[in-house]
């Protein structure tokens, strides 16, 4: 299978991006909010199969100088285990070259990202919206 990677959203159907993110359970945002989040991100990458179907994506926020943060790595369940997630991360890391990069992920994927050279950060804090906090406790993102 031939995969094409694009770092612009010129050919992106954001309804497909939102559907993929829902399918892999990383977001339930509307298409409009997913589009806004990607367009407001300095770096992004989209992967398409030979039929032009979106099969993976990811984005990164950055100041373009020192700090970058990777979010929303999504790979279609039918394409997982084929290196697409790794390719999305590597593409974003090329775009983030020379910057300190943090990555926000589900606790169940820690070992995957450790294999890609990321380390668990022990000096960070996060503030969730009150109505979302319990889910993050239940899923193991935070202790309390």
Automatic annotation (TrEMBL):
Keyword Cell cycle found: no
Keywords from the UniProt entry: Acyltransferase, Transferase
Pfam families: Acetyltransf_10
Listed GO MF terms: N-acetyltransferase activity
GO cellular component: cytoplasm
InterPro entries hit by this protein: Acyl_CoA_acyltransferase, GNAT_dom, NSI-like
N-acetyltransferase domain boundaries: 3-144
Official protein name in the record: N-acetyltransferase
Organism from which the protein derives: Pseudolactococcus hodotermopsidis
């Amino acid at each position: 299978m031939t995969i094409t990677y694009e770092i612009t959203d010129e050919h992106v159907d954001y309804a497909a991006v939102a559907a993929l993110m829902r399918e892999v359970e990383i977001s339930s945002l509307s298409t409009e909010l997913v589009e806004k989040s990607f367009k407001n991100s300095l770096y992004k990458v989209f992967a398409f199969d030979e039929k032009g179907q979106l099969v993976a994506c990811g984005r990164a926020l950055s100041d373009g100088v020192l700090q970058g943060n990777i979010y929303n790595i999504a790979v279609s369940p039918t394409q997982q285990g084929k290196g697409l997630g790794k390719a999305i991360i590597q593409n974003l890391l090329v775009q983030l070259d020379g910057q300190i990069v943090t990555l926000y992920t589900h606790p169940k994927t820690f070992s995957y990202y450790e294999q890609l050279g990321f380390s668990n950060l022990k000096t960070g804090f996060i503030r969730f919206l009150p109505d979302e906090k319990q889910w993050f406790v239940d899923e193991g993102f935070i202790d309390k």
